[in-house]
Write a structure and sequence with these properties.
Blueprint: H1 2-20, E1 32-38, H2 49-60, E2 65-69, H3 72-84, E3 92-96, E4 111-113, E5 118-124, H4 127-130, H5 136-139, H6 145-153, E6 156-163, E7 170-171, E8 175-179, H7 181-184, H8 192-203, E9 207-211, E10 221-224, E11 227-229, E12 240-244, E13 247-252, H9 262-280, E14 290-295, E15 304-307, H10 310-314, H11 318-323, E16 329-332, E17 342-344, E18 347-351, H12 360-376, E19 381-385, H13 388-392, E20 401-405
Parallel strand pairs: 1-2, 2-3, 5-6, 8-9, 11-16, 13-14, 18-19
Antiparallel strand pairs: 1-20, 4-5, 7-8, 10-11, 12-13, 15-16, 17-18
Helix pairs in contact: 2-3
Keywords: Hydrolase
Protein name: Agmatine deiminase family protein
InterPro entries: Peptidyl-Arg-deiminase_porph (IPR007466)
């Protein structure tokens, strides 16, 4: 009998080791070996370069910062600027690629770990669900970015077979949160159940929270009425994030702001619907989540009036071309995202929007975000940055970064 007992114990230990060594995608608040970011050529939105330098310099003060670039002259121009921004050079590593890799969180590496090794989780790339048809062909090489980097690093790749971008998911230790667009729009030939099963297995999580509608502020190109702008086409990190395993921060639009434009009216409705869904969601232990809300910036303060020209109209989706003609008056708006912060070693880097001359209510929103982050991350510096240039490109700080987990 004692031999059977010994065998049972050995089998139990072996199974336990296998269980604990399973690869998973850690929540962002776990320690980082490095944070990846990008300083690659971006022909469409060159104004975002300066704000990207701010992010790189700030990151380097807290964590090893791996900067992916594709252009030597662009890198050279960055070096002096980073120096003036106080970058910590011992923490900065430039990694050259032969392809542009902008918005590194989306096509870039998603690292899983078993504590001792890294593995790359590879999701297929469809250029945000072909959100920008005119640029889809140009954008295709970004889909191989993560695999090429994994090969250079000598780490294994797990291919999932489904389409998804890094900014489309947010995770706690046991839950993945996403908008339904990540399943329905990117993977129309698969059921929601199939997509969910694949994501949970790949990231080693227990459950999904799906939110039905994403805000129009994140919709690419034509949003509503005569309002245009850039967006990631349904990314959860625009609006809703985990603060810990039991707490979620969710964006809302205030009663004061909701009637200032048709875009704000519609996003007010969407955010309220999301909030009701989050209130009904349950943790794996059956308990409700703690929901903390943050008011979105007032979109109407940022509308930039313009006239649509033929070249821009030619790059739109077919349904947009039917509604507009060259010479029509339109308005552009940046993708304003308070929830698009990055949690890393010793710091949470977040956006701020208020400037002199703006209503005091916008300053209060900035301060509210910082108060929330201080409460939930008391041992980290809260570092607000003005990254409006990045937001005009359709994202924020989180979109420009991706964490590499620290190994034991």
């Amino acid at each position: 009998m004692k031999y059977f007992a010994i065998i049972f114990v050995l089998l139990f230990i072996g199974c336990s080791k296998n269980k604990t060594s399973k690869y998973s995608f850690p929540p962002e608040w776990e320690p980082h070996e490095a944070v990846w970011t990008d300083y690659a050529t971006e022909n469409s939105y060159p104004t975002s370069y300066n704000d990207r330098l701010k992010v790189i310099a700030t990151l380097s003060k807290y964590v090893k910062t791996k900067v992916v670039y594709d252009n030597d002259s662009l890198k050279s121009s960055a070096l002096g600027k980073l120096d003036s921004l106080g970058a910590k050079w011992t923490n900065v590593e430039f990694i050259k690629t032969d392809f542009p890799m902008n918005w590194v969180r989306d096509p870039g590496p998603i690292f899983a770990t078993n504590g001792k090794q890294l593995r790359l989780i590879d999701f297929k790339w469809s250029s945000y669900g072909d959100a920008y048809p005119a640029f889809t062909e140009y954008d295709k090489p970004r889909g191989d970015a993560d695999n090429k980097l994994a090969l250079d690093m000598g780490i294994d790749i797990d291919s999932t077979g489904i389409y998804l971008e890094g900014g489309g998911i947010d995770v706690s230790h046991n839950t993945v949160m996403a908008y339904r667009a990540m399943a329905d729009q990117r993977n129309p030939n698969k059921s929601l159940k199939e997509v969910e099963k694949t994501i949970l297995k790949a990231l080693n999580k227990k459950q999904m929270i799906w939110l039905d509608e994403f805000p129009l502020i994140d919709k690419p190109q034509h949003k509503i009425d005569n309002i245009f702008g850039n967006g990631a086409n349904g990314h959860i990190d625009v609006s809703t994030r985990f603060l810990n395993d039991s707490t979620i921060v969710a964006t809302v639009i205030s009663e004061r702001d909701k009637n200032k434009s048709i875009l704000q009216q519609e996003d007010y409705r969407i955010y309220q619907s999301n909030l009701e869904q989050l209130k009904k969601a349950r943790q794996p232990n059956g308990k409700p989540y703690i929901i903390v809300t943050i008011e979105a910036p007032d979109y109407s303060l940022y509308y930039y009036p313009s006239v649509i020209d033929q070249s821009y109209l030619d790059r739109q989706r077919e349904e947009t071309k039917e509604k507009f003609k060259a010479g029509d008056s339109i308005r552009f708006v940046p993708c304003l995202e308070y929830a698009n912060f990055l949690i890393t070693n010793g710091a949470v880097i977040c956006s701020k929007t208020w400037k002199e001359g703006m209503p005091e209510s916008e300053k209060i929103k900035d301060e509210r975000l910082q108060t929330i982050l201080r409460k939930y991350f008391p041992d980290r510096d809260i570092v607000p940055l003005d990254v409006l240039e990045i937001s005009w490109g359709g994202g924020g700080i989180h979109c420009r970064t991706q964490q590499e987990p620290k190994l034991e």
